[in-house]
Amino acid sequence: MTEEQPFTLRQIAVPAFGPSLLFGLGEGAILPVIALSVRELGGSVALAALVVTLIGIGSLVCNIPASIITTRYGERWALVAAALWSALAMAICVLLKSLAAFAAGVFMVGMAGAVFGLARQSYLTESVPFHYRARALSTLGGVMRIGLFIGPFLGAAVIPFLGIGGAFWVGVATQLIAAALSFSIPDLPGEHRLRTVTAAPGGPHVRPTIRSVTSSHMHIFVTVGIGIMLVSAVRASRQAVVPLWADQIGLSAATISLIYGMSSGIDMLVFYPAGRVMDRKGRIWVALPSMVFIGVAMLLMPLTHGLITLLFASMLMGFGNGIGSGMVMTLGADYSPAAGRAHFLGVWRLLSDIGSTAGPALLSAVTALLSLAAGIWCNGLIAFAAAGVLWYWIPRTHRAAPG
Question: Which domain holds residue 333?
Answer without folding.
Answer: 209-397
